[in-house]
Amino acid sequence: MSLRIVNRGLQLIVRGYKNMAFPDSPAKASLCCEEVEGTPPTQAMYEALKESCQNNASYFHSDDSENGQRLYQGFVTLIDHVNTVWPLVDHVRKVAPFYDFDAKSPGNGYRSFVSVVDSCVLHGLKLSRQICTGRDTLLFRKGYFVKEVESCGQLLASLGTCITHLHTLLSWAPTGELFPTENHTPEELFSKADTINQYCFYGRCLGFQFQPSIRGILKGISICMAGFSEAYYSHGNLISSMWTGGQYLIDPELRARRIVNISQSASVEFCKAFWFLTESEIMRRVPSLMSATVAVNKLMILQPEPVVVTTLDGRETTVLPPTVHIGLHDLGARLISVNKRSGMVGETSTLPPAEGVIFHCHGGGFVAQSSKSHEGYLRDWATKLNMPILSIDYSLAPKAPFPRALEEIFYAYCWLLNHFSEVGTTGKRIVFAGDSAGANLLASCMLKILKANIRRPDGIFLAYAPLLVSFIPSPSRLLCLMDPLLPFGFMMRCLKDNKGKEAKKPNKELTTSNVTTPMDGNGFLKVSASQEGISEGVSSYEEVSPSDMTELQAHKCEPNGGQVATVRIRLSRPLRVRQRHGLGGSPVPRRDSDVETVSTLVAEPALISEAATGIMDAMTSRFASITDSNSIPGVELAQDALAVGSNLDALIARSPSDDFIFSVPREPLLSPYWADDELLKNFPPVRLLSVHLDPCLDDCN
């Protein structure tokens, strides 16, 4: 009898638990602002939330327990927030279509915020119905749902403040203009409403605006960021970091406080260190194991030598290598190709050169990452398009701020115009491709190409392009206040550290009539041995770092079963290459550090096991290097980092406007948004890729 009663009780518990599931997924918010004929108006969703909240409020009104009264008050507060937010968001919903680029591109920051608020309402509706169906079951946890309801209320209140800011932006610009036409500052915007509570965006509701399938990933990244900050600032070890990471998983409020305080207090060096995790040995192995197999994957080093290019009117002009900020330096360019081709540097093949080439610039907020961290999709592109890709490893801020990276991109493009055969192409078609900061650099490079009157690329593909490098208020830019991948403070620090400083003047003694100079807008300084930061006698072959040697500890195989050598080469002159293992021509005397060749036959289980062991060893040593030295290889920690770290656990309640105290010059080469319309009309066909919740969406509109 007792067993029968227990069994019956368990069935009731399981049935009650299943009834708590919400039948409708709240993943999709209203992505369009117009009401579709034949469907209920969007207001019905808000009314449904109010009705469900009222039901729960009536139920818990008579509950005398502390959690019961908190639930009652939480639902009453939610109803008040819905009543406040609905008329505000409804107005934005109606005017948002007037700010689309055209009828075929229904997207702008106003639409995005309407979608975000709708997602919050759906999240609240799901939560309220879970409580409504589960409040009478034995498994109902009042303490858990109290925090969930209160977090949802704080979230809706903060979004209401954001919508108030959007109404201010609407009054600052004429219909159709996403950026203010008058001189309005971000400080002025944030002074017109209450301070936005960013903590609610990174706690229990983290990723509410995204599909459920990606929320777990975003939560994992956030936990990693919070845990990494412990190791970075506190000299932690692997075990302590795993423990603190577990705390951030269990305690969403602790995680939110840590992430927001990191965003507000951490230096750009922390941002670089965290993003440089994609450059770690464990991540370097991912493309070799997960992405398409390529026959050529070389890091070429372009020596800083003058490049002579022919203009469209038949004149020759000399482009000198960049010297601004950090002096003369080699420039890395990664060549990726699915096939070896005739003439390709360091390769022997009878396959004719491809007709096209992709000139690629990686993203990373101007301060982090490289061609290696973007290698995964570059391999896939090279395979599907069957053409070589040249990806440039430009110098990074804050050590090398604007215009250093831009000058290097332009210099590399001019080098490419003279060396198509070494890249394995005829150069019949050139396509620019870049994401984030790389997209900005390519757009700016296009302006320099037009001013220099040299050959243009045949097309440009820009993804998530920040075309206005300044925080001039726009609707989509407010999205970074809640972005899990690019927190507001990170974005501000990247902008501050890339805005640059005044470059040194060129040496007039080296000026010639056919050399581009800063005076004619091309921004390349003259070479002066006495200039600060310029190294004399640049070595043609430099030592490769230990991390570089570890980089190529994986093997690949060609479709025909033969091994493919992945070779790191350095160019002393455009045609000089150090070779190894019979890659064409006679071997050249070398040091062991000059060339790296390796890899893994991914089809053999024994080698996979060996690779897995190597990954774990690399991860352990990588973590040790982080925690022992308080830095990431290639990234120096600021002197006051430890002082900053001690403040990360403090609850800092300050306005986001505190991060706006910096100015950015209105320079078209830094912000192509300011470029002259006549220049923009001469751009080749451009394809812009953005997404609904991209903070740079309005830049691309």
UniProtKB/TrEMBL annotation:
Q: Which domain of life is it from?
A: Eukaryota
Which cellular components does GO assign to this protein? Answer: cytosol
Gene Ontology BP terms? cholesterol metabolic process; triglyceride catabolic process
Query: Where would I find the Hormone-sensitive lipase N-terminal domain in this sequence?
Result: 45-345
Recorded GO MF terms:
sterol ester esterase activity; triacylglycerol lipase activity
Give one Pfam family, short name only.
Abhydrolase_3
Where does the record place the Alpha/beta hydrolase fold-3 domain?
Answer: 359-468
User: Any idea what this protein is called?
Assistant: Hormone-sensitive lipase
